[in-house]
Amino acid sequence: MACYLGFIGITAMAFGNPGLAIPMTIFALFIVAGFGVPAMFTRLKGNDSKPLTLGQFESFGIVTHTGKLAPRDAAVQVLLLPVLVLFWGLTAAIIAALVS
Protein backbone atom coordinates (compact mmCIF):
# COMPACT_ATOMS: atom_id res chain seq x y z
CA MET A 1 0.00 0.00 0.00
CA ALA A 2 2.90 2.34 0.75
CA CYS A 3 4.26 2.03 -2.80
CA TYR A 4 0.88 2.83 -4.33
CA LEU A 5 0.36 5.82 -2.04
CA GLY A 6 3.94 6.84 -2.74
CA PHE A 7 3.12 6.84 -6.45
CA ILE A 8 0.13 9.10 -5.82
CA GLY A 9 2.30 11.41 -3.70
CA ILE A 10 5.04 11.58 -6.34
CA THR A 11 2.61 12.33 -9.15
CA ALA A 12 0.78 14.89 -7.02
CA MET A 13 4.04 16.71 -6.28
CA ALA A 14 5.43 16.43 -9.81
CA PHE A 15 2.28 17.37 -11.70
CA GLY A 16 0.45 19.13 -8.90
CA ASN A 17 -1.98 21.88 -9.58
CA PRO A 18 -5.21 22.79 -7.80
CA GLY A 19 -7.29 21.02 -10.44
CA LEU A 20 -5.71 17.66 -9.59
CA ALA A 21 -6.24 17.83 -5.83
CA ILE A 22 -9.66 16.16 -5.86
CA PRO A 23 -8.74 13.35 -8.34
CA MET A 24 -5.54 12.55 -6.41
CA THR A 25 -7.51 12.40 -3.16
CA ILE A 26 -10.06 10.10 -4.77
CA PHE A 27 -7.28 7.83 -6.10
CA ALA A 28 -5.73 7.67 -2.62
CA LEU A 29 -9.11 6.77 -1.08
CA PHE A 30 -9.58 4.00 -3.66
CA ILE A 31 -6.16 2.58 -2.80
CA VAL A 32 -6.93 2.63 0.93
CA ALA A 33 -10.33 1.02 0.26
CA GLY A 34 -8.73 -1.59 -2.00
CA PHE A 35 -6.60 -2.80 0.88
CA GLY A 36 -8.98 -1.95 3.74
CA VAL A 37 -12.14 -3.71 2.56
CA PRO A 38 -10.46 -7.13 2.14
CA ALA A 39 -8.84 -6.67 5.55
CA MET A 40 -12.29 -6.05 7.05
CA PHE A 41 -13.69 -9.15 5.31
CA THR A 42 -11.15 -11.31 7.12
CA ARG A 43 -12.53 -10.10 10.46
CA LEU A 44 -16.21 -10.77 9.78
CA LYS A 45 -18.21 -13.14 11.97
CA GLY A 46 -18.38 -16.67 10.66
CA ASN A 47 -15.05 -16.47 8.86
CA ASP A 48 -13.27 -19.54 10.18
CA SER A 49 -10.33 -19.32 7.78
CA LYS A 50 -6.98 -18.28 9.18
CA PRO A 51 -3.96 -17.00 7.29
CA LEU A 52 -0.75 -19.00 7.30
CA THR A 53 1.75 -18.10 9.95
CA LEU A 54 5.17 -17.00 8.74
CA GLY A 55 6.59 -20.39 9.72
CA GLN A 56 3.90 -22.27 7.81
CA PHE A 57 4.40 -20.01 4.79
CA GLU A 58 8.16 -20.64 4.89
CA SER A 59 7.55 -24.40 5.09
CA PHE A 60 4.79 -24.82 2.53
CA GLY A 61 4.97 -21.85 0.18
CA ILE A 62 1.77 -21.15 -1.71
CA VAL A 63 -0.10 -22.94 -4.48
CA THR A 64 -1.09 -20.85 -7.50
CA HIS A 65 -2.80 -21.66 -10.78
CA THR A 66 0.56 -22.42 -12.37
CA GLY A 67 1.81 -24.59 -9.51
CA LYS A 68 3.51 -24.36 -6.14
CA LEU A 69 5.66 -21.33 -5.42
CA ALA A 70 8.47 -21.21 -2.92
CA PRO A 71 8.11 -18.47 -0.30
CA ARG A 72 10.80 -16.34 -1.95
CA ASP A 73 9.13 -16.61 -5.35
CA ALA A 74 5.72 -15.77 -3.93
CA ALA A 75 7.09 -12.69 -2.18
CA VAL A 76 8.79 -11.53 -5.39
CA GLN A 77 5.58 -12.06 -7.35
CA VAL A 78 3.48 -10.07 -4.87
CA LEU A 79 5.93 -7.23 -4.29
CA LEU A 80 7.13 -6.68 -7.85
CA LEU A 81 4.15 -4.73 -9.21
CA PRO A 82 3.92 -2.08 -6.44
CA VAL A 83 7.65 -1.38 -6.70
CA LEU A 84 7.44 -1.11 -10.50
CA VAL A 85 4.51 1.30 -10.20
CA LEU A 86 6.50 3.46 -7.76
CA PHE A 87 9.54 3.54 -10.05
CA TRP A 88 7.29 4.32 -13.00
CA GLY A 89 6.02 7.38 -11.13
CA LEU A 90 9.57 8.44 -10.27
CA THR A 91 10.65 8.01 -13.89
CA ALA A 92 7.70 10.01 -15.21
CA ALA A 93 8.40 12.80 -12.73
CA ILE A 94 12.10 12.90 -13.66
CA ILE A 95 11.34 12.97 -17.40
CA ALA A 96 8.77 15.73 -16.90
CA ALA A 97 11.27 17.76 -14.88
CA LEU A 98 13.98 17.33 -17.51
CA VAL A 99 11.71 18.25 -20.41
CA SER A 100 10.21 21.35 -18.86
Radius of gyration: 18 Å
Mean pLDDT: 90
Residue runs with pLDDT of under 50 for 5 or more positions: none
Record field, number of beta strands: 2
How would you sum up the major sheet? 2 strands, antiparallel
Strand content: 5-15%
How would the global form be characterised? flat
Q: Kindly report the spatial arrangement of strands forming the biggest sheet.
A: 1-2
Helix share of residues? Answer: over 70%
- N/C terminus separation: 30 Å
Task: Indicate the structural class.
Answer: mainly alpha
Order of helices and strands: HHHEEH
Our count of helices gives 4
List the helices and strands and how they pair.
Layout lengths: L1 H13 L6 H21 L12 H7 L1 E3 L2 E3 L1 H29 L1
Antiparallel strand pairs: 1-2
Any overview of this molecule?
Strand 1 (62-64) and strand 2 (67-69) form a beta hairpin. The mean pLDDT is 90. By secondary structure, the protein is mainly alpha-helical. The chain is built from 4 helices and 2 strands, in the order αααββα. It has helices at 2-14, 21-41, 54-60, 71-99; strands spanning 62-64, 67-69. The chain is flat. Helix 1 runs antiparallel to helix 2 (21-41) and helix 1 (2-14) packs parallel to helix 4 (71-99). The longest helix is centred in the last third of the chain and has 29 residues, at 71-99. The protein has a two-stranded antiparallel sheet.
